[in-house]
Design brief:
Helix content is about 45%, strand content about 15%. It has 21 helices and 17 strands. The longest helix is centred in the first third of the chain and has 22 residues. The protein is globular. The two termini are about 35 Å apart.
Length: about 500
């Protein structure tokens, strides 16, 4: 195994340690020897909304059926005016970024193919990812319940451990497990990777145009894929990744990331949200003038770590909700187990709620909320993964503030109240949002969070300020990152 990356060396011990995850998964699940023969089908919400085709195995007849069991037409992959958007569906963030790219590509009349490694069921590829995802989710949830574990272990793992160059070497090695997913794709079709495992496996396969989308503002070598073009969302991220800031592991860094391998694109935002910024901001101000209930969108992350936090918010806002000064729209994603935890907390506090589980009715609710007042507590829970993720995007249009950990949602054009991060790497999302004025600083203490909720519900000045900053940011093109990523891929 090479201990060199971007012209810099790490110790041979660090390089050896970086290969342990690859060796462990290979021993447990084996390795996909034969390349997957992939075809495309028009399937699911990602096709209905954005005409993006989903890549499935040619021999997987079940994957080639619609939701009602009807066999779908199969298409060959055509690289002309097209791109592949690769994700691993680990958590919601990588999938939301993939959706954003599919949305923008559709608006530019570019064919998008969605490639989800986790969808290749019963393969060592999917089994390895599911195993690693379950570990991550377990530790994320524990970090929200144990302050000691969060401060002394999880924050370190999600920042320092992922920051150094041996993290990139680890991803380079583990991605050898996934190369079979790409081996038979046309080598000249652009591939946009929403996760470095996709980017590295594309490089291993010799694909000619690989774009690595970097979501984090905190410079982490975890996101780097040697030989690909890295896109970042902010000037501070550009400086940090370009200089490989604080990515040393023992040996000093002597080479930077080449300028030809990085570009600042702006925030990765869906076309639907980008095109309605002015209308959505006007609606927020109009609701404030009419004295309607302040609408908060609470978003559960992919690891499902915020159930108790949401229960605390609902209990604190209980009287405001009863007086119709505040409404909570809580997207639980696909976390039925976490919903049962929140359900118990709501019932203990005698807080009534409405549960939404039908995707068509959820879309109808969002449409009706554009012109009608919203009151009470609304819970959204969907089994379909696309609906679980995209529900948040749909509800952004009709909410006044989004209450979220500073994850990939930090970069979206809606006023934001940031709650406690899940991992130190997310801290810089809140820093970015607070600096460009469309989000608060991170409220990591319940006393501060309660004070902010009171201020936002009872007064309008923070809402007005963030709305104006969103409009100013829009004029500067800060939210145009999705367009710029697609342009980079097609150049």
């Amino acid at each position: 195994m090479s201990n060199e990356i971007f012209g810099n060396k790490v110790s041979r011990f660090s390089a050896w340690k970086a290969g342990l995850a690859y060796k462990m998964c290979k021993r447990i699940f084996g390795e996909q020897k034969e390349g997957l023969d992939l075809v495309a089908v028009a399937k699911g919400g990602v096709y209905k909304d954005f005409k993006a085709l989903t890549l499935v195995r040619r021999d997987d007849l079940e994957a080639q059926k619609d939701d009602d069991g009807t066999p779908l037409k199969v298409y060959e992959v055509n690289p002309k005016n097209a791109l592949v958007i690769g994700t691993i569906r680990m958590g919601f963030g990588h999938w939301r970024i993939a959706i954003a790219l599919a949305s923008v590509a559709a608006s530019m009349n570019v064919r998008a193919y969605i490639l989800d490694y986790l969808s290749f069921s019963n393969t060592p590829i999917a089994k390895s990812i599911k195993f690693l995802e379950d570990l991550y989710n377990t530790f994320s949830r524990l970090s929200q319940r144990s302050k000691w574990f969060n401060n002394h272990i999880w924050e370190d793992i999600t920042s320092r451990a992922n920051a150094t160059l041996d993290s990139a070497i680890q991803n380079r090695e583990i991605s050898r497990l996934f190369t079979a997913a790409l081996e038979k794709l046309p080598k000249d079709i652009p591939l946009v990777a929403a996760h470095p495992w996709v980017g590295w496996s594309a490089m291993h396969c010799g694909m000619k145009k690989v774009i690595s989308m970097v979501p984090d503002n905190l410079p982490l070598a975890f996101w780097l894929v040697q030989g690909s073009l890295h896109t970042v969302q902010s000037p501070s991220a550009y400086m940090g990744y370009r200089s490989l800031l604080k990515m040393e592991r023992g040996k000093p860094i002597t080479h930077c990331l080449p300028a030809s391998q990085i570009v600042q694109t702006g925030h990765y935002v869906d076309y639907e949200l980008l095109s309605s910024i002015k209308a959505d901001c006007k609606a927020r101000l109009d609701r404030a003038k009419r004295g309607e209930a302040r609408r908060f969108l609470l978003t559960m992350g992919g690891a499902g770590a915020q159930a108790h936090k949401f229960g605390d918010i609902a209990n604190y806002c209980k009287e405001y909700i009863r007086q119709k000064n505040c409404a909570l729209l809580i997207n639980m994603g696909d976390h039925e187990g976490r919903w049962l935890v929140l359900k118990e907390l709501l019932e203990e506090g005698n807080i009534p709620y409405t549960l939404h589980t039908d995707w068509k009715k959820t879309k109808a609710f969002a449409k009706e909320a554009e012109k009608s007042p919203v009151t009470g507590v609304h819970i959204f829970l969907h089994k379909d993964f696309y609906a679980a993720v995209y529900c948040t995007n749909l509800l952004m249009h009709v909410c006044d503030f989004m209450v979220t950990k500073p994850s990939e949602l930090s970069f979206y054009p809606i006023p934001k109240l940031f709650i406690q991060r899940v991992g130190r790497h997310e801290a810089w999302g809140a820093i970015r949002g607070s600096e460009i004025g469309d989000g608060t600083k991170e409220a990591d203490d319940h006393i501060i969070l309660h004070r902010l909720l009171t201020m936002i519900i009872e007064e309008d000045d923070l809402l007005q300020m963030q709305v104006q900053n969103i409009l100013n940011n829009d004029k500067m093109g800060i939210y145009n990152g999705g367009y710029n990523v697609v342009k980079c891929a097609l150049q």
